[in-house]
Automatic annotation (TrEMBL):
Name of the molecule in the record: glycogenin glucosyltransferase
Class of this enzyme: transferase
Pathway the protein acts in: Glycan biosynthesis; glycogen biosynthesis
Coiled-coil intervals, chain numbering: none
This protein's record includes keyword Manganese: yes
Signal peptide: none
Domain of life: Eukaryota
C-alpha cells in the first residue's frame, strides 16, 4: 500500500550533497518505504545530476537559495550567510503533502522507518551535543505556507544562535524539550556516528537497534576512500574511526557502489584512461573514480598475495614472477573516491543560468568576452 500524500524529504544544494541524497533515497527504497521520496535542489545542481536524482526520487523540486517572500526577503538579504540554512525551511512549502519527514542528505536508514509518520509536528531526536536541543537532521513536520512564513519572519528578526537551521528551528519550536514527550524521537532515529565513541557502553547496549545513522560533522562519507574488493572504507592519515563508524561508512559506500554508480554510469559512459581513472564528467562537477593500488597511495600495509591464485608455492617462484604477481594484485585492488572539481558547464546549464538571471559578470560573461563574441558574430 502506498501513501501518496506523505513524503520523506531531503535537500541538496550542489552536486556534492546530491551523492548523499541519492544514497539516502536508495536506502529508503531498499527498505521498501510506502511513502513518496522528495528532494529539494537549488539552481546550482547540474542537469545531469537532476536526471539521476529523478530515477531515485519521485519529486525533484527546485527552490531558490534565498526566498523572495517580500518584506522578509529584504531583511534576509542583509544576512547572506544564512542562505543555505534557510533552504531547508523551504520544506514547509511542499503543501501537496499532508505530512513529511525531513532527513539530512548525510543520513542513512538501516531499516524501514515509516512509523515516523505516526508522529506529529514537530518531532525530532535530541542532539548529542546538547540534549535539550533537538538535532535538525531528522524531523517530522506538516507543510504549511503559514508556518513557512512565520519561520522566515522569525529568522529575519532573530537570526540563528548557531548560524544554521538547527539553532533557528530550536528557537522557533522552543517548547520541544518540555512540552510533549511524544515529540521526542528516540535517539535511534538520528544516531550521530560520533556518539559511537562518546558513550561506548550505551552504543554496545543499544546500538544494534539503530534505525537511522547521521554522518554529522565536517567529514562526510563521500570524503572517504573505499575499496570495492574488500568492501571497506580505507583510512589514511587524514581519516580515522572506530570499528562501528567504519562499518556505517562502509554501508554508505556499499549502497553507493552497488546502486548509485550504475546510475551515474548509465548517464555517462565510463572512460578508462591510462592513469586508471574513470571519470564521470557532469555539467557541474567531475566525479573521479580512481583505480589505484591502495598501498601505493597511502601508508596501508601491502596485502598478502591471495592464496587461491598461487597454484605454485610462492616460495618456488622466481623474483620476476613474484613481482609480476604482485603487480597483478595491485591492479585488481582498486580504490573508489569521489573528487569534485568544477567542470565546464554544458550549454543547457549556461542557458538556464542566463534565464535565471545568474550571469557570471566577473568571469566569462564579463563585458570584454561578450564584446568579443559580438565582434566575431558581426565580422
Ligand atoms: O552546502 C550544503 C550544506 C548542507 N546541505 C543540506 O543541509 C543539510 C545539513 O548540513 P550538514 O552538512 O548535514 O550539517 P551537519 O553536519 O549535520 O550539522 C548540523 O548542523 C546543521 C546546521 O544547523 C543542521 O542542518 C544539521 O541537521 C545538524 O546536524 C545537509 O545534510 C544537506 O541536506 C546542502 O544541501 N548543501
Ligand atoms: Mn547532517
Amino acid at each position: 500500500m502506498s501513501v501518496t500524500d506523505q513524503a520523506f524529504v531531503t535537500l541538496a544544494t550542489d552536486d556534492v550533497y546530491c551523492q548523499g541524497a541519492l544514497v539516502l533515497g536508495q536506502s529508503l527504497r531498499n527498505h521498501k518505504t510506502s511513502r513518496k521520496l522528495a528532494v529539494l535542489i537549488t539552481p546550482e545542481v547540474s542537469s545531469g545530476m537532476r536526471s539521476v536524482l529523478s530515477s531515485v526520487f519521485d519529486d525533484v523540486i527546485e527552490v531558490d537559495v534565498l526566498d523572495s517572500a517580500d518584506s522578509v526577503h529584504l531583511a534576509l538579504m542583509q544576512r547572506p550567510e544564512l542562505g543555505v540554512t534557510f533552504t531547508k525551511l523551504h520544506c514547509w512549502t511542499l503543501t501537496h503533502y499532508s505530512k513529511c519527514v525531513f532527513m539530512d542528505a548525510d543520513t542513512l536508514v538501516l531499516c524501514n522507518v515509516d512509523e515516523l509518520f505516526d508522529r506529529e509536528e514537530f518531532s525530532a531526536a535530541p542532539d548529542s551535543g546538547w540534549p535539550d536541543c533537538f538535532n535538525s537532521g531528522v524531523f517530522v513536520f506538516r507543510p504549511s505556507l503559514k508556518t513557512h512564513n512565520l519561520l522566515l519572519q522569525f529568522a529575519a528578526k532573530h537570526g540563528s544562535f548557531d548560524g544554521g537551521d538547527q539553532g533557528l528551528l530550536n528557537s522557533f519550536f522552543s517548547n520541544w524539550a518540555t512540552a510533549d514527550i511524544g515529540k521526542h524521537l528516540p535517539f535511534l532515529y538520528n544516531l550521530s556516528s560520533s556518539s559511537v565513541y562518546t558513550y561506548v557502553p550505551a552504543f554496545n547496549h543499544f546500538g544494534r537497534n539503530a534505525k537511522v545513522v547521521h554522518f554529522l560533522g565536517a567529514t562526510k562519507p563521500w570524503n572517504y576512500k573505499y575499496n570495492p574488493q574488500t568492501k571497506s572504507v580505507m583510512q589514511d592519515g587524514t581519516t580515522s574511526g572506530s570499528f562501528h563508524q567504519l562499518s556505517f561508512l562502509a554501508l554508505w559506500w556499499n549502497i553507493y557502489s552497488a546502486s548509485i554508480l550504475p546510475l551515474l554510469e548509465k548517464l555517462q559512459k565510463m572512460e578508462e584512461t591510462e592513469s586508471e581513472e574513470c571519470k564521470h564528467i557532469f555539467n557541474g562537477v567531475e566525479v573521479t573514480l580512481k583505480k589505484v593500488s591502495p598501498y601505493a597511495a597511502s601508508s596501508l600495509q601491502k596485502p598478502e598475495l591471495p592464496e587461491q591464485t598461487n597454484e605454485v608455492n610462492p616460495t618456488a617462484c622466481s623474483p620476476e614472477e613474484l613481482t609480476f604477481k604482485a603487480n597483478e594484485v595491485a591492479r585488481s585492488v582498486s580504490e573508489l573516491s569521489i573528487h569534485f572539481k568544477p567542470a565546464k558547464p554544458t550549454p543547457e546549464d549556461e542557458r538556464r543560468k542566463w534565464e535565471e538571471g545568474r550571469m557570471d559578470y566577473m568571469g566569462k560573461d564579463a563585458f570584454e568576452h561578450i564584446k568579443k563574441k559580438l565582434d566575431a558574430f558581426l565580422h
